[in-house]
Each structure stands twice: as C-alpha cells, then as structure tokens.
Design a protein that fits this description.
By secondary structure, the chain is mostly helical. It has one domain (about 1-30). Helices cover about 50% and strands about 0% of the residues. It has helices at about 5-10, 15-30. The longest helix has 16 residues, at about 15-30. The N and C termini lie close together (about 10 Å).
Length: about 40
C-alpha cells in the first residue's frame, strides 16, 4: 500500500487546517457507516 504524506495532500488542499477538517469529516462519515472508497 502506498504511503500518502501531508505534502502529497497539500498539492490538492490549500492548507493543513483544511486538510484536518476534511479528514475529520471523513472519519465521522466512516464511523456512522459510510461506505469506504478504498479496499483496506
């Protein structure tokens, strides 16, 4: 499995704070039963 770094993500998202907000939102979605978008 490939490692994704913060620097890789910052090429898509403008700043680290926004990245944290996006990760938090997705974690909450997964905790509530949302379907994963990748096979883990």
């Amino acid at each position: 499995m490939a490692r994704i770094t913060v620097e890789d993500c910052l090429s898509v998202v403008d700043n680290r704070f926004e990245l944290v907000l996006m990760a938090t939102k997705r974690a909450r979605q997964l905790a509530k039963g949302a379907d994963p978008t990748i096979d883990a």
